[in-house]
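Long-time lurker. I teach an intro course on protein structure, and each term I like to show students one example going from raw sequence to a predicted 3D structure in token notation. This year I'd like something fresh instead of my usual example. Would anyone be willing to generate the tokens for the chain below so I can use it in lecture? Attribution to the forum is fine with me.
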Amino acid sequence: MSTDIVDLSGIIKAYDVRGVVPDTFDATIARAIGAAFATVVVLPEAAPGSRPTAVVGHDMRDTGPELVAAFAAGLTAAGVDVVSIGLCSTDGLYHASGAHDVPGAMFTASHNPAEYNGIKLCRKGARPVGQDSGLAEVRDLAGAYLGGAQQPVTATAPGSLTERSTLSDYASFLRSLVDLRGIRPLKVVVDAGNGMGGYTVPAVLGSAAGLDALPLDVVPLYFELDGTFPNHEANPLEPENLRDLQAAVVEHGADLGLAFDGDADRCFVIDERGEPVSPSAITALVGLREVARERALDDSRTPVVIHNLITSRVVPDLLGAAGARTVRTRVGHSFIKAQMAEQDAVFGGEHSAHYYFRDFFFADTGMLAAMHVLAALGEQPHPLSALAEMYEPYFASGEINSRTADVPAARARVVEAYVTQQGAGPVVVDELDGLTVSHWDETPQWWFNLRASNTEPLLRLNVEAADEDIMVKVRDDVLALVRAEDEDA
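-- Reply from a regular --
Happy to contribute to a lecture. Here you go:
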């Protein structure tokens, strides 16, 4: 018997599984991961006397069904009943996991190119499975199965495989959280990027799932499900992928535009002028709505809102003034989700347009965030640009990447200039995630965060200031330090 262990660290990272099919990720690997997921997560979480069960779904990529079948075979061989919900968005899978309180697996590579696929795993109740919450164990055990160092658990009675559609339940659940029936009529252009938004938007915002029509005139853009992404990448974080939506909003005289990524768990917003509304502004807008709702239920409560450390200062400013307690976290959904559950937070937001809701099992859902934006806009007469102004009072650089051969040396130059010498005056420094230097308590107000990439020789810079000229100066000064040649080289 072999005692080899296959190294899966190239495709199983901190948060999920991601690889090129079939070069680095194929059905054999998917089955091994399914068997390991059964052992590490599903079987231990099954209630005594009940059948261990998991729910599995996939996005529009052509390789999804074959990989799902293999993964399900690994689960059923271990005695797990598998409920296959077929095509779904990632938040649709989270809803199925949360509503039925069973572990789940979503086959998607999100915004990655067509040749990729992957898996996002969750425990029952849609709780995340990440590097420190079971994914490392799944990786190592699957590698042992593949190499022959260990044999998968084989149940005396294999599990069953059933198919079930949950789209209507998902749509109804979201509609129960935000009531759009009484808003003023709105025209909204939606760019699904040939991803799963083309499947979920007609169900949630339209009547495709049998629900009543809403006062929304939805103009569809790239709703055809196509994992080859023939029109543009399904990654709205890149400005070039928003251009078609921006043009369509203006062309149709729409009130707003919405852009979803490939698995439709992120949502970006465009105002009526065709201008992007920053995810920080959306975090503030939705956060204020959730805080107000929480306090209306019990004004003695202090609602908690989570935000990552490169979110605009407008988020803690406005939410703190509204009576909430804000908690700052590292960048990354596993950190946000952990803090959401630990703090019993009502809402959480990230600069990458991931939005998390306590009412949605502490998980992220772009669709629910979009519904809040529609409600906020439709409950008052002003255009979205005017509404968003109050949530965007500061000036931000956006995230700027700098490739450097010596990341520590580049970072050291910034530390020397801004921390050791304190030439910029009194600053507050922390290293929660990279280097954050803040001059916010003094005039002029500014802060920046400099973080190293986990996978590439890159430094990522975010700058914000109360004055645009100051933002530009700090941005350019820090970039000059980062990109300067190392004098010792």
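Some talking points for your students: DSSP finds 14 helices and 22 strands in the chain. The mean pLDDT is 95.
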